[in-house]
Amino acid sequence: MSLPLHCEFDGIAALRRALAERRVSAVELAQSALAAIDARRDLNAFLHVDPELTLAQARAADAALAAGRAGALAGVPIAHKDVFVTRGWRTTAASRMLEGYVSPFDATVVERLAAAGAVSLGKLNCDEFAMGSSNENSAYGPVRNPWDPAAVPGGSSGGSAAAVAAGLVAGATATDTGGSIRQPAALCGVSGIKPTYGTVSRYGMIAYGSSLDQAGPIARSAQDLVELLDPIAGFDERDATSLERCGGRPNAAGRVRAEFDAFRAAAGADRPLQGLRIGVPREFFGPGLATDVAHAIDAALAKLEELGAVRVDVSLPRTELSIPAYYVIAPAEASSNLSRYDGVRYGHRAPEYRDLADMMARSRAEGFGPEVQRRILVGTYVLSHGYYDAYYLQAQKLRRLIAEDFQKALRGQCDVIVGPVSPTVAWNLGEKADDPVSMYLADIYTLSLNLAGLPGVSIPCGFGAGEVNGRRPVGLQIIGDYFDEGRLLGIADIFQQATDWNRRSPPTR
């Protein structure tokens, strides 16, 4: 199978120039991508494609380009994770509960990318209501990893990562509640960023854990992430958790790009990371880290040192406690957020029931999958009378201590923190399906950032070892202080200019 037309250009910036110079049209790009999506249905990355809607957007982008009033992303083909509500396309959160639902409005992230001229190719598969680490919890079947169809793509944004890795889109939207941008990006060999909590609007994003959820992009490179993150970041008065200012600067489009450009401009030619202190947490390199992943991360750290960075040993002593804290707080918030799906106003309603209470119970039992039900039950339990203080309140106290660990390291010992994204490469489909605790442990290195609200970038840095794992990617995580997205992406870009991991593509069929 030949790759879509947009893959012939070296990133979104090059694609934008080609469109502006009329060397290619938005309609041509869209038609080529739609054909590729149809040819790769085996990946199950897309849940809803509507060529008529896509081509209408492409024609509008071409008209804007011809008139000289095009937005920054005019004609660039993207797709949206199925937790962002969209007019025209179905929004199901990969759940039977919302099967067939079409929103009357767009999420802010969707709205801002559309205003920039991006062309949507459809809605991407994910774990149901963004609950999962493997994309096996989707009511519409699992997504397959383009590098190895026997492997999971990671989750919950597995469809976004797989679509980018397979070259079906130039970039995709995603969400990160406990690692759901960074982990699938790592397992699929692409790049992804979880911004600081509150810098990107959550309006129109179907909620899982409201104090943890944050939207961000997945793309092939750090430069592409800048192109996508910059226009969606900014204050939104419709979102109560949206920030007006980022460390004294207005939270607005242009902030991330300006910081990225400033960091890259200040970098020297020979040793561009000269003097950068990279903190390496000893807790990230314990017995749970697979040997092949550790070797790839060590090689990446050596490359950063070669580029001028200084390695500093740091400690994040409460890393292991992020799992119990997260799996109290996130289910508690999910229990509250998902209570609205009762079969009364919208969503699935059981065809047969005795009374109102039975209708609600049957509708929820039929509409929600096993993992969602498990988390609702856990969340309801920890919020119940007699257990709130013992579980939920203690988890929130622990959350504060985890955030303080990061602040101690980032504001006293190092400039950024670097380590693995996942303790292993992608595992086989079905391998952990009957062991939810093992699945939860796969997020050991990512959960703490969401609890602290910090930004983090995942970039490819190698592959596992052996006949099977040797074709499964490894991701490097770079963690910064609040509102540090531009610098994180600048560091990632310098690494990517010195290596070729992000330019490697999975084999085509």
What class do helices, strands and sheet pairing give? Answer: alpha/beta
Return the CATH topology of the domain at 5-268. Amidase signature (AS) enzymes
* Cα distance spanning the termini: 6 Å
Our count of helices gives 16
Strand content: 5-15%
Strand runs, count: 13
Order of neighbouring strands in the sheet with most strands: 1-3-2-4-6-5-12-13-11-9-10
Gross morphology = globular
Radius of gyration based on Cα positions? 21 Å
DSSP helix fraction: 25-40%
- Assembly type: single chain
Q: Give the CATH H-level superfamily of the domain at 5-268.
A: Amidase signature (AS) domain
- CATH architecture label of the domain at 5-268: Alpha-Beta Complex
Mean pLDDT: 97
Please explain how this structure is put together:
This protein has a domain at 5-268: Amidase signature (AS) domain (Amidase signature (AS) enzymes), CATH 3.90.1300.10. The chain is globular. It has helices at 12-20, 26-39, 51-67, 108-115, 158-165, 182-188, 222-232, 255-266, 291-306, 322-337, 356-367, 370-383, 388-410, 436-441, 447-452, 485-498, and strands spanning 46-48, 77-81, 119-124, 171-176, 191-194, 214-219, 245-246, 249-250, 277-281, 310-314, 416-420, 456-463, 473-479. It has an eleven-stranded mixed sheet, with helices on both faces. A two-stranded antiparallel ribbon has the order 7-8. The termini are close together. Helix 9 (291-306) links the parallel strand 9 and strand 10 (310-314). By secondary structure, it is α/β, with parallel strands linked by helices.
